[in-house]
Amino acid sequence: MNPGSDVTLRDVARASGCSVSTVSRVLSGSRPVGADAARRVREAAERLGYRPNQVARALRSRSTATVGLVLPQITNPFYPALVRELTHVLDERGRAVLLADCDDDPGTEAARIEALLARQVDALLVVPVDEERSRTAVAAAAGRVPLVLLDRSCGPGIADLVAVDNTAGMALVLDHLAARGRTRPCYIGADGTNSAAAERRAAYEVGAAALGAPPRLALGDFSAAWGRAAVDRLWNRESGPEPDALVCGNDLIALGALQRLRQLGVDVPGRTVVTGFDDIPPADLADPAVTTVRQPVRDIAVEAVRLLEQRLDDPAAFPCRTVRLAPQLVIRASTEPGDHPAHGTGDTAPSAPGPTGGTAPAPRSPDSPSASHSSKAAQ
Amino acid sequence: MNPGSDVTLRDVARASGCSVSTVSRVLSGSRPVGADAARRVREAAERLGYRPNQVARALRSRSTATVGLVLPQITNPFYPALVRELTHVLDERGRAVLLADCDDDPGTEAARIEALLARQVDALLVVPVDEERSRTAVAAAAGRVPLVLLDRSCGPGIADLVAVDNTAGMALVLDHLAARGRTRPCYIGADGTNSAAAERRAAYEVGAAALGAPPRLALGDFSAAWGRAAVDRLWNRESGPEPDALVCGNDLIALGALQRLRQLGVDVPGRTVVTGFDDIPPADLADPAVTTVRQPVRDIAVEAVRLLEQRLDDPAAFPCRTVRLAPQLVIRASTEPGDHPAHGTGDTAPSAPGPTGGTAPAPRSPDSPSASHSSKAAQ
DNA sequence: TTGAAAGCGCTAACAT
DNA sequence: ATGTTAGCGCTTTCAA
Fold first, then answer.
1. Which regions are flagged for Low complexity bias (chains A, B) (predicted)?
2. How distant is C1' of D15 from CA of A60, in Å?
3. Which of A275, A304, B17, B147 has its CA 20 to 30 A from that of B167?
4. Which domains are present in chain A?
């Protein structure tokens, strides 16, 4: 009924008249093997429906070909695309992914990391919950296996990091607004304690100041609910002049803000424009569709795996590296009237073609001794 | 620097003055052990920072405490919530999750399943890509390990299945429309070859007929793009009378349809109402927010894991079982004018309180010898 | 209750 | 180029 269920190397060896080592060598290609022996082995393996037991292989070779992927909250709509790319890239290299969700809790995160290490993952990919409160667990884990941080940092010198260049992304947004003559922007973001929140907020402050805009921030969390609440606050109270641009820290906030603005009857993009960050799937389903900063998700995945495998080859070869990838501004109807007439998917202007770097001298911490690469793939 | 990296059972044995077997028994609790020996062992283990090597354990005990989760496309916004619940439920029981994404391709799916089996997963959770083209691989896998299908079937008698009761869900929608006096509904769905698509479509047909509505279907795929296209087709051509209700096969379609209706200036819910299915996160970010059928995601996860563990305990105990969980209608502004005034998250009416079963005698195939349970958790 | 010993299925030395 | 032999770290007989 199910051939191959418990066929072992020894069975193949017997059936092919070779020794187990020869069979092992043929099947794992670790050493040169005689042509006809190889053929006989392959035949026998095929015939018996042999499939190597990866657990046994792992125990002996001290490598599970498995990496742990630790996410703060998989329900954050930015992560599914990242997971997709990572699993594909890793799968191509024969590696499997053990997934862990942390419910946005550093304690849970520490526990999950522990569990993954006990399962002997070869390496870890971590999007840390919090810049500070994740540090201990992440640092400890990084001492045991190669570990690459994704999307968010965890303090300098802890581990390799691959993330979008938040500073450059914010600069793209501000340039876009400036070109459209917006002079009273307000930032709706998160005061969250993860690094992406901090970077975007800081980049906005610096960039807006450079443009001569009044420094105005509304800080809550990265949710649509906060987007709605922030609009209520900005429009219903005596909180200064009405903004003519809402620069949102991520797309969820932008979506929530847009929803409330429409309910209040505020014309977008006429009276105020709205921008997001990340380019999550629903961003172009809103009405108007949201102008946003697209993260180079595929590149992030490729880059992260590259760093990981370098560490696997030689764990001590480099000091901690930070790779910043250039984002792309996706202009949609929330900042550009009349545009994007029908086929809602319409992204308009690709931008930021070249290396990143941004307009503003933003807070890129002196993360590591090594360079802070940029541009599409930092080779 | 990193205690516990290579502390083994033998080290603990030496340090505690016991034999490895005693240590093993203490730590895995497999057999009664003397009180003070136990204490000494625990102390030593603690002190050395010992953590059991799960790979070695797995090799010996023939159980990896790992399940494979195979998804058609993790970027489908319905799955992240499911993944979240599953990982949490499994984690509570000490099991880890190996995740695989199939890119909606049955060939890839077969390969991923093979890879997971080679890694000796104890069991598989699969959302099959296609009702027919996934069958061979799924059936083969089900012959090797316990396998539970989620969300979509794969033909009768192949494996256990846990899914929402699509028929009941569609009945909730149709009742809701009928109560609002809508008489010219149109179904915008998918002619896709997965079972959820087929069930929803069939349930609509049967239910709409029962209400005396003209049978009208527009079939494409489960995407927002198709929602837009379908609306174009229904409004721009001479394709019969203008519908006063769009019953969409999932939320993405509904979101796309809504977007286009707004662009065409069609008032929702005044001139036509729109409903979705699944209740994915962006459904309540649209404007108007989408009335939809919420899947009991948590229950699906709990139920699936329950079935899995039963099979693990005794693989041949039962024939294939199908568990159908009752959905809930979430009424929002796309069918209910004036409602849901400000705080967009506002879900309105919980419904479908009791057992499921629906209005229409829909195509619930004679799946298995065993019963087709229903209601919230089929105990 | 505890210990000694035999493997789980494979790979990696070490021989030849 | 191939075979023989030890284990990887753990659980589990089997004795005591």
1. 358-379
2. 30
3. B147
4. 9-52 (no CATH), 66-165+297-325 (3.40.50.2300), 166-295+328-348 (3.40.50.2300)
